Amino acid sequence: MSTLDVTIKFNYPGFDLDVCFPLPTRGISGLFGPSGSGKTTLIRCLAGLERPTHAHIRVGNSVWQSEEVFLPPHKRRLGMVFQDVRLFNHLNVEGNLLFGYKRTAPEDRKIKIDDVIAVLELKTLLNKRPEKLSGGEAQRVAIGRALLTSPSLLLMDEPLAALGEQHKKDILPYLKKLPQKFGIPVLYVSHDFEEMASLTQYMICMDQGKIRAKGNLLDVASELPHVMNRWAPDNYIDGEIISSDQFKLPDGQIIQIPPSSSPVRLVINARDISLLHSPPEHYAGDALLKGRITEIVKISDRKNIVSLSLAEQEIHAILGDRGGNEPWISPGNDVFMVVNRIKLETG
Amino acid sequence: MHDFSIPGLTPLILSFKLAGVTTLLLIILATPLAWWLSQTKNSFKPVFEAVVALPLVLPPTVIGFYMLILLGPEGFIGRSWIGMGGDTLTFSFTGLVIASMVYSLPFVVQPIQNSFEGLGRHTLESAWTLGSRPLDAFFSVVLPLSAKGYLTALVLGFAHTLGEFGIVLMVGGNIPGKTRVISIAIYDHVEMLDYSYAHKLSAGLLIFSLVLLIGVYLINHRWRIRT
What we know:
heterodimer; A: alpha+beta; Rossmann fold; CATH 2.40.50.100; 2 domains; 6-stranded mixed sheet; 8 helices; 21 strands; 35% strand; B: mainly alpha; MetI-like fold; 10 helices; 78% helix; 0% strand; globular
């Protein structure tokens, strides 16, 4: 039973938004779709920045909009993070962080300043002016600022779209932590499937102002061949280095790696994995690993995406050339993975 | 009341008083006007903007002439003012302030309006979503971020009022200690061929205006570097 319900009908000249969906009350939900599909308009309606013709928006016990009610943005308990950051240049980072906090009733301040500073690593930035921050730092401050209003829903409108590749990678781990650290549901808008897939497993897909599909990320995406044909995610696998060239996964499997002294993560691209029913005598590749199949999503006759659990971590393998149609590839089965290429990433 | 041993001082003080009072009242009046102009989607917006800009292009004598009629005992403003218990507006300091406010209006409204428009809706929207009421958002976000526009408005409004001549002469005349401001004092001295005195007053005004403007450009420049 969901406690976030949204129905919106909004007729613009030349554009109709017509959506109705419940939103999971925990974790990150993705709102995915091409540019111009109405994603931003939808969340601006949620925030009260647009006033749709007909709408019913209920968050928990509070009705934000109905036929009789329209709460202005400042009365909606929500946090919003914009693509273009929008920090206040006349305040330093600390002033920006506290702007919403000061305007939140003391009894509603559930999120603590120190926690936000710790989780988003803002300590060294507090006295800086916004214009001195890098793009990634500024966006972290904007996220912290929104969190400190202790919102009942956090809306994020393409928060990474204006950042470079490296900054994107740096900020993703912070985003992933948010729902579990602060217990706030997040609605995350993006047109970048890669980004979406690394953040969430629940996705709402929009097109031309309507919701085309919603549910499990891969199931929804499987109906979008133009997205899936290009998708080749990197899997990140945590473990520890036990000797200079040996990496141990949490479940005890040991992998040979090039000598490394600093802590690393393994990076395995989904296309570099092939599956075997039984262990081969010889294999060509960097490693042989054992995992369990959790899910198979059929993209086409020739292509399947297999989700696997590897030492309690979820990874994806993309099997082309009719791979994945064998009967032993089914959820719950243990399989062997030949990994063609392993990269190491420090940190 | 005034020190008549330095006769140039009285018109100078009067000029500063006029410019100060006019600018202060204009800033207060221009803020809601500039805000409305910056936010309105009214299709007559260009008409309102044109009316505000009129004093930029009209000869001061034209404005002065109409103000004289409006402020006179038979004019709309003058009659209402007397009806409210005031004195005759023409040839009085109060009349001068009203006329100067019309004359300097665009110099105060336009920089403030430009600042407001430069901020865009974005800044306001983020303030709202952080729980800031519209009025609170205006005072705690819009105003501080428009400081540069206000400084420009302040200085331009002040300097422009300080330098006016035609309107003052038509509306206020030349009453020492009451409406005889510095620009008129200079004109008087020139007419009486007292060039050396006209020189002193003119050079003083020139240097003061230059210093004021350098100060503004300096501050603006610092701000540009910082942002």
